[in-house]
Amino acid sequence: MGSNVLYIEDNPDNMMLVKRALESRGYTLLEAPNGLTGVASAEQREVDLILLDINLPDIDGYEVARRIRASGKTALAYVPIIAITANALKGDAEKALSAGCDVYMSKPINIRELWARVEAYVPAPNPKFS
Questions:
Q1: What does pTM read for this prediction?
Q2: Which domains does the chain have, with CATH numbers?
Q3: SS (H, E, C) 87-126
């Protein structure tokens, strides 16, 4: 079972928080600082799950999700995408889901919720920590 999690996030503090949280459970975190890099990483690497910020500096997370789902790499049609965003307006969750995300989480990130969401799709490589 794989354990590569791609996190597409432009905020270094959020990236570090998630990196520490997931690596403590045995996951390998692949980092992408913007949407275009994230799409390219998803197409070039073996990815088991994608964490996706919606507010990115180049293309927004909705467009990233659409591009990943439409990728020529067939497996990306099935890789779970969890949107993680500070957007909390009515309709934001529906917009993320309609763009191709599987789950919508709001910031600030709750580590226990993050672990539960990630482990629902990709079992922890180090189950002793679960």
A1: 0.93
A2: 4-121 (3.40.50.2300)
A3: CCCCCHHHHHHHHCCCEEEECCCCHHHHHHHHHHHCCCCC
Of 129, 127, 85, nearest in space to 104 by CA: 85
N-term to C-term CA, the chain = 16
Task: Judge whether 5 and 41 are in contact, CB under 8 Å.
Answer: no
pLDDT tens per residue across span 21-30: 999 999 999 9
Please check whether residue 53 is in contact with residue 29, taking contact to mean a CB–CB distance below 8 angstroms.
no
- β-partners of residue 85 are 106
Q: Which residues pair with 104 in a beta bridge?
A: 83
Q: What is the C-alpha separation between 127 and 54, in angstroms, rounded?
A: 30
